[in-house]
Amino acid sequence: MAFSVAGSAAEPWQKWRVDASNHPQRWLNTTQEWIQTYDRERQFRDLALAYAIRVEALRYSGDEDHVQDAIEEGLRFAKLADYPTATSLLRINQGWYFIQRGMLKRAASSAIYAIEAAKDADNSNLIIEAEILQAQVFHESGDVARALEILEALEQQRYSDLPRLQMEFHGLIGAIYLEIGAYDIALQHMHDTLSIAQQHLGDWDVSVAQYNLGRAYSLTSDYQKARQYFNQALASSRKIDDQLGIAYALQRLAEIEDTQGNEQRALQLIERALPVFKAAGAHPMEAQAWLAKSEIHLEQQQIISAEQTLQAAQSLINTLNDTKLLQRLYELQSRLFQQQQDYQQALAAYQQSVDYLLQHQQTLQNKQIQEIMVRLEIREQEATNELLQKENQLQQLQLQEQRTSNYLMLWLLFSGAAIVLLISYFLYQQMRARRRYAELALKDDLTGAPNRRAIVRQCQLGLEAVAHGQHQLALAVVDFDFFKQINDSFGHDVGDAVLQRFAEVTQDCLRSQDKFGRLGGEEWLLVLYDATEQDAELIFNRLLNRINEHPIRGLPESYRITFSMGFATATASDTFETLYKRADDVLYDAKEHGRQRLKIAPAAAVASD
C-alpha cells in the first residue's frame, strides 16, 4: 500500500491510542478521570471519545469483561453528541471484539456501522481502518476474494500516513498469503508489520506482530524461529500485563512443544491458557486449545480424557462458523473412534474431515483470488512460486488422504469379513448421502433449524416478491439477553439447550408461510409475510411465553429466558442488507433500553431507505 510513515498529521486521539498500547493501565486511569469529569459537566462529545480510548486500553490490558459495556456506553454518548468520529472508533473496536469471539455476523454489522460513521465524519484514516476491519471479517468468514477486493481498492484509491493502518494492511495481506501457501510473500509482509510496530507503535501492537510472525514460521515448520517470536510476543504481553496476549503466546508454544514430543510440557501450557480464553470469551482460541488438548490425550491413548475434551470442543465449535475447526474436530474424532475400534464411525468422521478440508481448499483455489493477487503487484516469479507451492500443497494433501484411506482400509480388512461388509454398505450409502449434503448445508448443526445461508436466501426470495408487488414482508432480528451469563454460569451445554428450545418453539409458533433461521451465536432471523406491527407483538409475546413454559435441563426452574427483537417492514427497493440494518438498528435500541422488549422500525425510517 502506498503509505509513507513520515510526517504523520494524526489527530491527538490517534497519538493517545499509540500511547495506550504502551501504557494501558495509565490510560485506564486517565480515561476514568475524564469520564467522571465530562459526565459531571455533561460534555457528551468528550465523554464519547474518552470511552473510545478506554475501550482500546481495556483491549490492550486483556480486560475483555468490560469492553462491550464500555462500547455501549460510548455509543450512547456519541449518539447524544452526534459525534461520528467516536462512533466509528467504538464500532471498529466492537468489530475486533466480536471477531475474537467468532461472532462474525455481528462483526460484519459493526464494520458497516464503522464505515458509515467514518464517512459521516469525513475522516479518510477512519474509513481506511474500518474497511480493513471489514476485509478482516470477510477473511475470517472464508470469503478471501471479497477481502482481497477491499484491500485492492484501498491500494488504488486511498492514502494514509498512519503507521497503524500500514501495520493492519500488511498484517492482513500477510495472513491471506500465508493461508494459500505463498510463504515468502507472507513473511515479507509480516516482517514489514513488525518493523512498523517497533518503530512507530506501542508494545501491544508489537506483541501482535511478533505473534503473527511466530504463526507464520510455525506453519512453515521453522519451529526454532516460531518459538523465538512467540517468546518475544509473550515478553511484550507480560510487559503490559495483557493476560489474553499471554494466553495466545502460551497456546502456540504448547503446539510447538507437542510437535517436538514434549507432551506434558504442552499440556501444562494449554492448562494455563485455556481458562483465560474461556473467561475472555475468545471462543475460536478456546476451541483450538480444547482440540490441542484432545490430540495430546489421543497420542497418549487416554481415550476417556480424549473423549471428554472432544465433547467440550464440539459443543463450542458448533456455535462457530469455522470450516478449519470443523475439519480438525472430525479428524480427531476419527482417531478417537479408531482407538475405540469403532471403524464405521471412524471412517464416517474421516470422510467429513476430508469434505471440510476440500471445501476450504476449493475456496482458496477461487480464480478471482488469484487475479486480484496479480493486480496487487506480485512479481511474476513470486506468483509462479506461489502456484508451485500450492500445487505441492495439494499433492501432499492428496498423498496424505490416500495414505490415511489406505491405512483405514487395511485396518478394516484385517478386522474380518464383518468389517468388509460394513465398508461395502458404507460405499453403497455414499450416493444417497451426497443427496443429503445439499440439505445439510442449509441446516444449523446444533439446532436443526435453517442456517444463515438458508434464511438469508429465504429473505431475498421474499424481497423479490415484494419488488413485484406480490406480498408484503417484514424482518425480525432476535437476540437473547445475557446469553453469555447462561454459558458462563451453567455451561455451554445448557446454552445449546436454550438455542434448541428456541428453534422448537419458533417452528411451532410461526405460520406455515413464515420462515426462520439461525444467523450464528444466539442471533436469529424471522422472515414474516404480510405481518403487521400487531402481529409482531403477538409473535414476540408468544415466543417469550412458549420458551419459558417448561424448565430447561441445567437451568433453575425459576430462571426466565428473555430476548429482544427488532422488527422492520420491507419496501420495494430494499435489499437484504438494508432491511437487516433497519431491524438490527432497532434491536440495538431495544438492548439499550432495558432488553426483553420489541422495537419496531418507524415508518419514516422505512420510507427513507
Strand order of the largest sheet: 2-3-1-4-5
Please compute the radius of gyration using only Cα atoms: 25 Å
The end-to-end span amounts to 35 Å
- Would you report the number of β strands? 5
Morphology call? globular
Q: What is the number of helices?
A: 27
CATH topology of one domain: Alpha-Beta Plaits
On the 0 to 100 scale, the average pLDDT is 81
Unreliable residue runs: 1-9, 367-375, 377-388, 416-440, 604-609
Description:
- There is one protein chain.
- The chain is mainly alpha-helical and 609 residues long.
- It has a domain at 452-608: Alpha-Beta Plaits.
- 74% of the residues lie in helices and 5% in strands.
- It has 27 helices and five strands.
- It has helices at 12-22, 24-41, 44-61, 67-81, 84-100, 104-121, 124-140, 144-157, 163-180, 183-200, 203-219, 223-239, 243-259, 263-280, 283-299, 303-317, 323-339, 343-364, 367-375, 380-414, 417-440, 452-467, 483-490, 492-509, 533-547, 576-592, 603-608; strands at 473-480, 515-520, 523-529, 563-569, 598-600.
- Strands 2-3-1-4-5 form a five-stranded mixed beta sheet, sandwiched between helices.
- Strand 4, helix 26 and strand 5 form a beta-alpha-beta unit.
- Helix 9 (163-180) packs parallel to helix 11 (203-219) and helix 14 (263-280) packs antiparallel against helix 15 (283-299).
- It is globular, with a radius of gyration of 25 Å.
